Every structure is written in structure tokens, then in C-alpha cells.
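REQUEST ID: PR-0412
SUBMITTED BY: lab tech R.K.
PRIORITY: routine
TASK: structure prediction, single protein chain
INPUT:
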Amino acid sequence: MFSKIEARKTRRRMQQWHRDRAEDGKPPGGRRTFGWKEDRMTREPTEAKLLADAVEEFIAGRSLNSIVRDWQSIGVKTSTGRDWTTSSLKRLLQNPRLCGYRRIGNQLVHDDHGEPVVGAWEAIVTPEQWLAVDTLFRARAGHRVGRDGKPAETLPVDHREHRHLLSGILRCGKTKPDGTVCNAQLRVTRQRDCEQHIYACTTKGRGGCGGLGRRGDKVDEYITELVLAKLEQRQAVAKAAGPWPKEAELERIEGKLTTLTEQWKSDQITDDFFFTNVRDLEQQRTSLRNERARHAAVAERAATDTTDIRRRWHTPPEDGGLDISQKRAYVREALHAVVVLPVGKGNGSRGNFNPDLLVPVWREG
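STATUS: complete
OUTPUT:
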């Protein structure tokens, strides 16, 4: 019993020690973090440049897989000498240390005025860039498309490599005998009489209906044009967005919280009054901060030049073009899914391509 009590005391002391260091703007202890030198304060130029580029590319829509493959191909190692993986890169990009902030648990460390504490080490990216990355990670996982064609629960990040642009993104829109929509993912298949790949519904034994398919190159070409147009539209909207319009409202809420806290500390208000009101104000502050972060993500996208994406899309990767992972990242960021409707009486004819039978399910924002 006494050993458990002492262990809890030690744990609390360590937690307080970490918080005190964070509030003083000191870096966390332990081994050095990739991007900084052994003093954990000064940027390591080569690694910092890699991280800054990775942040910009991720905001622009590039996948973690693609970035990691590039790093592996040029021999980039972690600070412990290991090969990079998508999970290790994701952990690093999610770390607010990149922009000078500290986080304990799932919360940024804030000062008495509700602003994030800025550390004494050299930042690699701006707070706006990191907030954009953090927002994308929380939204980018995607959503599974339900039987009604609407987004449902969240999906894990897709780490698998695909050889075709829309594998797992196309959904069967054929109506089954019981009146429900099939909605199974279309998979790539090939037939002897067709040089091009075909997106086809899986068999009944694998959860599909097996009664619908489309010529892959035509579908890829059409959806590509839709996605590129969406990216260009998104950039135009983002450039016109201007400053976040609720900054004054957030400052007002933070001011109320500061005043309320000071009154409570000086015993001007009761504990009951304080805790009853502070909870609502903190929820409002969190909601506004999340909204500001989403706005920052839009602004960062607007600052990313997408005019060259169209050219790179049709350029071989070895010549500086986008690889399939990067293209799929753009598609997944623009679309939840594409529902493929059946053609005519045959419910699966691939003879004539009709773009009206492809129904995109767009992501918001």
C-alpha cells in the first residue's frame, strides 16, 4: 500500500516537473528530436529543411507514404538511426514542437492569458502551418461511406500502396433485388479482350453483387479532371477567405476566462459559481480555437501553389511528376467516394462511357 502511495506521489512530481518546464518554455528531456541538434534548441539545417518541406507538401495534399518513400530512397534516418515509417513521420508532424509549442497529453500548454506557451528553441514551421497540419490529421482520416451513400464512421489512414488511382474509392450503385444499394467497393480486374484495367464490383461471396463494371482509364480521366477543378476552386475560395472573422469573439471569451479565474483566485466568487461558468466558457474557447485552426488550414492551402499540379499530374514521377500515392492523396482529400451507377438494362455494361453515371461524394471545405 505504501509503495503505491509513493509511486503516485512520484508520478505527480514528474508530471508537475514536465509542466513547469513546458510553462517555462524549455524543451522536453530525453534524446534529441529529428530536426534539432543535440542541444535540442538549435535547428539541424538538413533535417529542418526536410521537415519544413514535408509540412508544406502534406498541406498541399501529398501522402505520408510518398514522403517516407522519398526519405528512404535518399537514406534519411530518424534521430535514433532507424528507417522512417508513416507512423513515425506522423508522430513527428503532429508534434507542436515544430512551431515552438508544447503539448502535455492531448492539450497545448497555455499561459495565464490562454495563449500557447512559446518555447525557447528554434521553430521549424510557423504556428499557422502546424495548426493546418494538425487540422488535416484530425479530418484527413476520412469517413466510411454507408449503405445510403453518406459518410459514416471514421476510417484509419490508408497506408497500403495501390497501383490504380481509384481502387477502394469507387462504390457500386446498383440496386439489389431487395431494394437496397450494393455500395461495395469496386476492385481492379482485367479481361483478355480489354487492354485497359476495369473497375468491377466484387462477387457476392466477397460482399458485392458482381454485376457492375467500368473501363478504368475513362473513369480515371474523368475523376482526375473533377478533382483538379475542385483543387483550383478550393484555392480560389481560400485566397478570398481573408482573415478569420471571429478573432475578436475569441479574445472576448479568453478575457472573460482570465477575469473569472482572477476573481476565483482572490476569493471574490465561490467555487460553485466559478466551476459552473468556467466549463461553458472553456467549451466556447475550444470550439472557436478549432474553428480558427480550420481557417488556418484553408489559408495555408491558399498559400500553396496548386497551378503546377495539373502539369505534374500528367508527368512521369521520374521527371518530377506526381506518383500514384500523391494523386490518391489529392483524390481522398477531395472525395469521400464516387458512386458508380448501373448502365441500362444490363446493369453493368461497359460499352459506352457515360460520365453522368459517376456520382462524386465530395468532402466539405
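NOTES: The CA atoms of residues 76 and 332 lie 27 Å apart.
REVIEWED BY: pending
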